[in-house]
């Protein structure tokens, strides 16, 4: 339970903005910036609404939107950050309103989960396919797609896998022009989860929530999860497996 999350601003809308306006992430005080060495792609800043220590945000320097896919250059930066920060780091990108995103300015979050939580994430328990194709975990109740990048993958290699994940996600959602999804990445695996709803009974869930890591604002939100049931909740906000 993280009471700070109940005060977290939500500036994203269900339709893409026609122009880039000032938001909580588009104007960053210089004191909050860790580095701009990843320019011209991202600034790296400390997350004001952090759940764990040293949680960082990769903020797009250009006026980009949270409804856009990640490109090869951005994925290259994410891969470099993950390798440099070390073990048990995970990056995640909430794309679109129904993904649980709260800010319209394009950003990727990076967090260290700790050995127990990180080791329990289901994509890490799925074997790599020898042909490099996409796979999934058979026991997860909602549709998702997993890819395994090569060691020290380049931005081009990461983007090739990202594009395959996105194509599969679009098909699962009926090929919408603007799909909503959660994307998570470590140095070992990538996973994308198609999303149909950003919340259930007033309680939102983002990328980590779809992995079973819940960051909730209060006890009432926890009771909603308990009342609905974990698998049922995730099935309602994702695409149920047939």
UniProtKB/TrEMBL annotation:
Residues 138-239 form the ATP adenylyltransferase C-terminal domain. GO terms for biological process: nucleotide metabolic process. GO terms for molecular function: ATP binding; ATP:ADP adenylyltransferase activity. InterPro entries: Ap4A_phos1/2 (IPR009163), Ap4A_phos1/2-like (IPR043171), Ap4A_phos1/2_N (IPR045759), ATP_adenylylTrfase_C (IPR019200), HIT-like_sf (IPR036265). Residues 36-114 form the Ap4A phosphorylase 1/2 N-terminal domain. Transmembrane segments: none annotated. Gene3D superfamilies: 3.30.428.70. This is Uncharacterized protein.
